[in-house]
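Q: I'm a student working through a structural biology exercise. My instructor gave each of us a protein and asked us to get a predicted structure, then write a short paragraph describing it. Mine is DUF7795 domain-containing protein. I'm not confident about reading structure output yet, so if you can add a plain explanation after the tokens, that would really help. Here is the sequence I was given:
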Amino acid sequence: MDIKRKDDVMLDLDKKVYQIFSDFMMRVMKFEELVSVGSSFLAGLHQHLELLRRRPIHKTSDVVEGVIKANGTKRLKAYLKSGCINLDEGVQSVSKLIECQKGLQEHMSKVRGLLSEVEGLMTAVQGVLTSACEYKFSFEGQHTAGGFVVRRAELEKEEMESIHPRRPSASDYAAIMCSIYNMLKQDFIMQEKIIVSTEICHPSSEELGSYTTMWTLRPYIKDEIISEAWKFVT
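A: Happy to help. First, here is the predicted structure for DUF7795 domain-containing protein. I'll explain a few features afterward.
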């Protein structure tokens, strides 16, 4: 009966870890959604900044000069005087630029909050693992005299697991959670650096293009690990 009770307690702890893991993966999915939205804001920032940076028409070209002379309308003159930016388009681009900057700031705030929740789940799973280890140690200490019986039961259980594939253990869940959490954290640190750079450094077109590429590429994320983790959720 004691062995059965031990198995029941350990099974209950495994269930708790599985629930924590499921909640963790839901946060991972939310993180992916936020990254996608953030990518749209960054791409929009790049697009509208480029519109405002549009280079003026080079009048040194004979063809361009001929067209300007032949069509010297007020609209064309105003367009050239404004630096080749349509007034309405310029106003819209500035508005969109501010919207994208605000969106990126909100993105950072949301991801920080999400990572805080993930850290809470990491703490929770560590607590369950500690409880499991303490209970197992206590049980084995109380049943030293019957160690042969306990060990025999464990061997029988291991034999059954070798025949029938077992579900991941609590330590399996904890290990993959730790791995994914570190990836998400590194990914966010990169995003944060990109966002800060767009605010204070006035990056060039080439730099913005590289930022957009790196945001989409996500070099710190190992897709195969996340894919494997989703297999644990049944």
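A: Here are two points you could use in your paragraph. The longest helix spans residues 87-142. The chain is about 85% helix and 0% strand. It's a good idea to check both against the output above yourself.
Q: Great, thank you!
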